[in-house]
Amino acid sequence: MPFVKIVKNKAYFKRFQVKFRRRREGKTDYFARKRLVVQDKNKYNTPKYRMIVRSSNTDICCQIAYARLEGDIVICAAYSHELPRYGVKVGLTNYAASYCTGLLLARRILQKFSLDSVYEGNTEINGEMYCVEDNDDGPGAFRACLDVGLARTSTGAKVFAALKGAVDGGLDIPHSEKRFPGYDNESKSLNADVHRAHIFGQHVADYMSSLAEEDEEAFKKQFSRYIKLGVTADGMEDIYKKAHAAIRADPSAATKAEKAVTKKRWTAAKIGLEARKAKIAAAKEAFLAQIEDQKE
Questions:
Q1: Which among 47, 202, 219, 221 could bridge 66 via Cys, Cβ 3.0 to 4.6 Å?
Q2: Among 80, 82, 64, 84, which residue's Cα sits nearest to residue 72?
Q3: Paired residues of 112 in beta bridges
């Protein structure tokens, strides 16, 4: 039998260092996080803001946060489940809803810092490239970097819809047009009409129309909530136009209604010293009376 060197010996395991918990869980890309979080030394304790975009099967979450040793501090958040307030009742995870969520976040954070009147953003939504510029007199634009987490940054991804919504809402986020839907890699140009159609949900409307013609049963099954709420392919663009206007009119978060909760008590309530003494005296009296009855 040939000599086999044991590589993972006692010395190896004594020096073994486990990776960070969120790396072990596959939740955080620390290579990207370090570059998003680390601030220049000459800027001291100035927060480095990130626009965090995360999507699930039922919701889209957009946050503005900055890092501290204790953990990330979120200063503003917007969710796609808030969109029914603004008229978008279905399709809360598509490209158009992501754009609305990004727009809502931008208007909300600017309102918080009293910059909403200074930086209106892009009110004419045409799908073209738009960047916010600092005003010569007055405060500069609110700057943040896009944090996509572990999502794939492919062309037309929904994270870039939220980015476009936030930029049109007045935030300064460094980006290019290469990942928006409608960008042609060969001609190196963006077809703004395709991008605009995605922002207003026209790709969903076209699919609704084609599916209704091809297979009505499949259409009724897939778009049952649209049918129930009376959302049609023709009225899709108007829904999103009204939603954009409503978001700009009032981006503030809805106040939660206070619930009148009646607390249920599982233990007996305290009756006080006097009542306890009276209870004991009554018990004694009853016991003595019982003894007297037994004697008779």
A1: 47
A2: 64
A3: none
Among residues 47, 56, 96, 97, which one has the least CA distance to residue 76? 47
Closest CA to 148 of 235, 274, 50: 50
pTM for the predicted model, two decimal places: 0.84
The encoded tokens of residue 206 equal 């076209």
Rg of the chain (C-alpha set): 30
Residue 296 token pair: 């008779």
The one-letter amino acid at 230: G
**What span, in angstroms and rounded, lies between the C-alpha atoms of 39 and 27?**
22
Angstrom distance (rounded) from CA 199 to CA 273: 70
Which residues sit opposite 77 in a β-bridge?
A: 63
For residue 77, give the amino acid letter. Answer: A
Q: What is the pLDDT of residues 217-259, one digit of tens each?
A: 999 999 999 999 999 999 999 999 999 999 999 999 888 888 8
What residue type is 153 in one-letter code? T
Q: How far apart are CA 213 and CA 219, in angstroms?
A: 9
Residue spans of the chain under pLDDT 50: none
- HSE-CB at 232 with a 13 A cutoff on CA atoms is 2
